[in-house]
């Protein structure tokens, strides 16, 4: 990578959305610095997926950050609450789901900002989506805009005017079908990604949780078969 | 503590400012949940000071959070850059100092927000001061206001209207002399606190770095002797 290449920090979870975002950022010409958090989530396979994706999609540097969000509790993704399954489309996104993690995106973006500042870039990519996951307060456009405002007051480079911060959220108002369509156009191998909230085994998605249902419907809308393996599903 | 007691999360560094802030929050009737970060700073004694202060000043719960800011570099507090010493008053606060840690307050406040949300409170206390440390972008009132705006878009309780977030920064426009005066009124034992950026030995402050100089001038302005031990100083 030459010195003139634009650099960007991207938050990479190993899921479908962040992987598509990575492909979009790469297509836009950014040299990518990917950041994945181990935060006591129950499925280390997300981290493994992120690692494979980073290797296969040519990121310059991939950092794994250990943070302990379990101590704050309050989420089915880090606690032992039951993950809801087999919900109808109109139920998904109604209210704030139990899979919500307190202040998660605020913590993740704060780390991304620290790394971006050290790299000397202001470009940060985040694969949030307000349409399919409208229940999460920190996935909405107003939240992202507020973080960008904060970031431009927080860092030396932004305050001195040499390095303004932009939080890129290309997927924010796309449907899951649109996300998958764009990813397929850009050659994303979705077999590398993992989305399930409650996988019954390694390399197997449940096919019944909100994340599986949204994903399956997105592939169906594109008349494409999801390349990952499911235990059961009714698409 | 009864169920009706107001709870607050407070960021406690073990320094003079955060300890005074703790005394102010306690005086205002809050039950205190203190949070201290171990972030690769060179002086574990800050953490020990925070622990003693939490015990002595009656905090309900004190959490130590390990985060690794060393990986981002860029600061004399976590790297091996030279800490400036013996600077004149007009030099201190001119420009952003090398002791600046990338995105530090953004990361700290994000963690505080996560804990506050889990506790079910929106009150967060932070001992930032814009006057004596104007070189830090994330200590200014505009930054704090932006974080409060962000927080009120980020959390379930704030979005649902049950738990609006307030970032309390009682010291933000006080001089160091005013901070010390208020702390003494509230009975703070400043012998418990530590401020020095470059301590030459345990329980000894250098007396020459910016933090020592500001602290010493603050005590001198109050005609009070700073109870901590210094290696050398010219007040």
Structure characterization notes:
The structure is a homodimer of 235-residue chains. Chain A has one domain (7-179): 3-Layer(aba) Sandwich (Rossmann fold), CATH 3.40.50.620. The first copy, chain A, starts with 6 loop residues before the first strand and ends in a 14-residue tail after the last helix. Chain A has 235 residues and is α/β, with parallel strands linked by helices. Chain A has a five-stranded parallel beta sheet with strand order 3-2-1-4-5, sandwiched between helices. The longest helix of chain A is centred in the middle third of the chain and has 16 residues, at 104-119. In chain A, strand 2 (31-38), helix 2 (45-56) and strand 3 (61-66) form a beta-alpha-beta unit. The first copy, chain A, has helices at residues 16-27, 45-56, 104-119, 141-154, 156-159, 176-185, 210-221, and strands at 7-11, 31-38, 61-66, 123-125, 166-168. In chain A, helix 1 crosses helix 6 and helix 6 (176-185) crosses helix 7. Chain A is built from seven helices and five strands.
List keywords for this structure.
235 residues; globular; alpha/beta; homodimer; 7 helices; 5-stranded parallel β-sheet; Rossmann fold
CATH level 3 topology of chain A: Rossmann fold
Q: What is the CA–CA distance across the termini of chain A? A: 43 Å
The profile of the biggest β sheet of chain A is: 5 strands, parallel
Report the total helices of chain A.
Answer: 7
Q: Architecture of chain A, according to CATH?
A: 3-Layer(aba) Sandwich
What is the C-level CATH assignment of chain A?
Alpha Beta
Cα-atom radius of gyration of chain A: 17 Å
Quaternary state of this entry equals homodimer
Average pLDDT of chain A, rounded to a whole number, is 86
Helix content of chain A: 25-40%
């Amino acid at each position: 990578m030459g010195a003139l290449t634009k650099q960007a920090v991207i938050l990479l979870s190993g899921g479908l959305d962040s992987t598509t975002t990575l492909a979009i950022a790469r297509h836009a010409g950014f040299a990518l610095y990917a950041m994945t958090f181990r935060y006591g989530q129950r499925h280390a396979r997300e981290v493994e997926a992120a690692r494979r994706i980073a290797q296969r999609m040519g990121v310059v540097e991939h950092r794994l950050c250990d943070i302990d969000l379990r101590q704050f509790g309050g989420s089915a993704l880090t606690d032992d609450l039951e993950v809801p399954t087999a919900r109808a489309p109109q139920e998904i996104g109604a209210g704030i789901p139990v899979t919500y993690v307190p202040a998660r995106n605020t913590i993740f973006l704060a780390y991304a900002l620290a790394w971006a500042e050290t790299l000397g870039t202001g470009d940060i990519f985040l694969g949030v989506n307000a349409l399919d996951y409208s229940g999460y307060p920190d996935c909405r456009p107003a939240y992202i805009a507020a973080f960008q405002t904060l970031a431009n007051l927080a860092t030396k480079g932004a305050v001195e005017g040499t390095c303004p911060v932009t939080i890129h959220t290309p997927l924010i108002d796309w449907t899951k079908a649109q996300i998958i369509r764009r990813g397929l156009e850009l050659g994303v191998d979705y077999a590398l990604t993992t989305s399930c909230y409650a996988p019954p085994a390694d390399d197997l998605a449940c096919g019944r949780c909100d994340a599986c249902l949204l994903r399956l419907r997105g592939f169906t809308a594109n008349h494409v078969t999801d390349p990952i393996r499911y235990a059961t599903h009714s698409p």
